[in-house]
Amino acid sequence: ALMITDECINCDVCEPECPNGAIYQGEEIYQINPGLCTECVGHFNNPQCQDVCPVACIPHDPDRVESHDQLYQKYLQIMLVK
Ligand code: SF4
Ligand code: SF4
């Protein structure tokens, strides 16, 4: 999963780009629900939020490193419950 750092300026452009609805407004900055972030696997070739963030504050979460296959399995699970 990706994560949003405290460099976030709350510009709001990433939230509507997420195909999984994983991005939400937290108490101070935007946040990513790691249970819903597939790093855009299943939808796009590259993370859509990273593409639009004007301050590049959406890195990979070092505590949540996932393989492409794990991300794809997460995508399938999300599609099942939708
Ligand atoms: Fe959503 Fe994709 Fe960004 Fe993850 S990488 S938060 S799935 S837009
Ligand atoms: Fe924050 Fe970047 Fe999302 Fe804007 S695009 S709300 S700066 S994480």
Automatic annotation (TrEMBL):
<feature type="domain" description="4Fe-4S ferredoxin-type">
    <location>
        <begin position="1"/>
        <end position="28"/>
    </location>
</feature>
<dbReference type="GO" id="GO:0046872">
    <property type="term" value="F:metal ion binding"/>
</dbReference>
<keyword id="KW-0411">Iron-sulfur</keyword>
<dbReference type="InterPro" id="IPR047927">
    <property type="entry name" value="YfhL-like"/>
</dbReference>
<keyword id="KW-0249">Electron transport</keyword>
<dbReference type="InterPro" id="IPR050157">
    <property type="entry name" value="PSI_iron-sulfur_center"/>
</dbReference>
<keyword id="KW-0813">Transport</keyword>
<dbReference type="InterPro" id="IPR017900">
    <property type="entry name" value="4Fe4S_Fe_S_CS"/>
</dbReference>
<dbReference type="InterPro" id="IPR017896">
    <property type="entry name" value="4Fe4S_Fe-S-bd"/>
</dbReference>
<protein>
    <submittedName>
        <fullName>4Fe-4S binding domain-containing protein</fullName>
    </submittedName>
</protein>
<dbReference type="Pfam" id="PF00037">
    <property type="entry name" value="Fer4"/>
</dbReference>
<keyword id="KW-0479">Metal-binding</keyword>
<dbReference type="GO" id="GO:0051539">
    <property type="term" value="F:4 iron, 4 sulfur cluster binding"/>
</dbReference>
<dbReference type="GO" id="GO:0005737">
    <property type="term" value="C:cytoplasm"/>
</dbReference>
<keyword id="KW-0004">4Fe-4S</keyword>
<keyword id="KW-0408">Iron</keyword>
